[in-house]
Structures are given as C-alpha cells and as structure tokens.
Amino acid sequence: MGVQDVLEHLQRLGLSGYEAKAYVALVAAGRPVNGYEVAKRSGVPRSTVYETLGKLVARGAAFELRGASDATDYLPLPPASLLDRMRREFDGSVAVLETALPAVVAEPEQHMIHNLKDGEAMLARAEDVVAGARRDLFLSVWPEETARLGARVHEAAGRGVDVSIMSFGSGADANGSGGALPGNVYEHRYSAPEAVLEDLGYRLIVVVGDRREAVVGGFGADGSAWGIYTADPAVALMAAEYVRQDIALQLLADRVGAAELDRLFATDPGLLRLLGRTPSNH
C-alpha cells in the first residue's frame, strides 16, 4: 500500500485532505518538526499549514512542543493510538446511530427499486444485503462473484442466518481459503453451468436477504454488468422463489436422474407449453 492509499483511507476515517497529508508528514519525520517543514514535506500550502496543524492538535492527532525560543514544533499521536481512538469513536457513533437514526426515518411512500450502474456497485450492494440479513439468505452465484461475497456469507452463517446457495461451480469457498461455502450449498449441474451461460449470455446473480430486499443482475463476458436493488418485499419474495425453485429442480434431477427430466421436458405438454416448445415426434 502506497502513501496515496494511506491518505485516502485517513480521509475515509474523517481527516481532511490537508490534515491527512500533514499527519503522514509528521509520522514520516520521526522527530518534532515545525510548520514550515511540514508544509515542505507534505505539500500542504504554507498559508494553511498552521491552521491544518491546529486542527490536528484539536482532534488529538498531534501535539505542540514549545521550545525556549517560543518556536512551535509538532509531534504526531502514534498511528496505533490514532487508529484505536478512531475505532472507538466510530463504534461509539454507530452505537448511537443504531438507536437515533430509526427514530427519524419516515416510512417510505413506495418501496425502493433502483438501478446499479456497474459491477462494483452491484457487488457492493449485494454485500450490504448479505450483511443485513438476520433470518435467511438465498443466493444464486457464480465463482467470480462468490470471490467477493464469500467472507460476508460466512459472517452471516456465523450469526445464525439460514443460508441457501445455488452455486454455478464446485461450491468452493470464495474468500480464498479453499474451504466450503457455509450453509446449504447446491451445485448447479442440471443444466451444466456452461450451457446456462451459453443460453443466457451472462452470469446471473441473485442475492436475497430475509425475503425483504434483493439484488438481481448479470455479468457479461465482455465485462459489462447490469442490475437492480429492491426493497420491495413482493419482488424480493419472487427472487427468493426463483432460487428456491432452481434448488428444487436440482434436487429433483439428483433424485430421478437428468435423463428422466430431459424426457419429461421433451414430452410433457404442460412443461412444453411453459417452455414455448412443441412436442417431440420421438
């Protein structure tokens, strides 16, 4: 991780851009330094460096050292202490907001459905759905997507969420450990994943939490992606039923055999009508 990554993460935790640069400069100096040297090391303008250092001192991320000549040098709060303080403040704010935010939330006039602009947005929203589940999770996923979601699914299973997964792959854990995904995992063999991919033209992802919110989308072979998030319980229920029916079909294929299912799909009038096909002459 480079300095730019460190600066970006410090800003995510509440420091301004100048504050992050000044703090990193103090840490990198390894000794007390004055404002002029902080400006030179950090790129913070000299016109604002003392204001920036004052803000770091006010938040406890730096300390002033006054010498005999009344010159002021600065020392940083050690990184471990700063991060521990930020963690405590963050956890404290979250604890307060868990009670305070629901009290000010108005009931939505309509259930939310919105588009997800790209694959990253879709996977981030899917992570939110998995992290928010408290009762059950239904997932229909491919290895490329479980690589991102696997750790969150493990966390959900660890807090007692009932997990059901239709896996278009071996069911290997997606988080890099090589172990098994948690919960009830069913490998999609009827039809084979490559046949499904050829038929659809994309990898379909369905993630449903507590049958009240869902992410549904697709990933194309060309890197394109489309998807939606919905908190409409009717749509979420339908998405969960899609996964449940796919699992049921796989269980049926395991029980009676793929050949028998193929025969039924080729000859049964009701199935043929649903599939938009005409009866075979054979």
Automatic annotation (TrEMBL):
<dbReference type="Pfam" id="PF01978">
    <property type="entry name" value="TrmB"/>
</dbReference>
<dbReference type="InterPro" id="IPR051797">
    <property type="entry name" value="TrmB-like"/>
</dbReference>
<dbReference type="InterPro" id="IPR002831">
    <property type="entry name" value="Tscrpt_reg_TrmB_N"/>
</dbReference>
<feature type="domain" description="Transcription regulator TrmB N-terminal">
    <location>
        <begin position="10"/>
        <end position="67"/>
    </location>
</feature>
<dbReference type="InterPro" id="IPR036390">
    <property type="entry name" value="WH_DNA-bd_sf"/>
</dbReference>
<protein>
    <submittedName>
        <fullName>TrmB family transcriptional regulator</fullName>
    </submittedName>
</protein>
<dbReference type="InterPro" id="IPR036388">
    <property type="entry name" value="WH-like_DNA-bd_sf"/>
</dbReference>
